[in-house]
Amino acid sequence: MTRHRFSTEEITLCRRSLLVWYDKHKRKLPWRDWHDTDSNIVAYRVLVSELMLQQTQVATVIRYYETWMNQWPNVNSLASASEDDVLKCWAGLGYYNRARNLHKCAQLIVNEYNGEFPRDLDIMINRLPGVGRYTAGAVSSIAFSLPNPILDGNVIRVLSRLRCIGSDLKKKSTTDHLWSLAADLVCPERPGDLNQSLMELGATICTPQKPKCTECPIQKQCLAYEQQIHQSSTDIEQCSTNCTFCLKPTEIDSSRSLVEHYPRKKVKTKQREETSFVLVLYRLNSQLEFLMLKQKQSNLLSGLWSFFEVISPPDFDQMNERKRKTFLIEQIQHMSCNIDDIKLAGQCRHLFSHIDKQYIIYYALDDLSIPTAQTQWFTEEQVLTSAISTAMKKVFNVALPQIKLRAFNGKKVGLESIHFPG
Ligand SMILES: [Zn+2]
Question: Could you tell me which residue ranges the HhH-GPD domain spans (predicted)?
Answer without folding.
Answer: 52-204
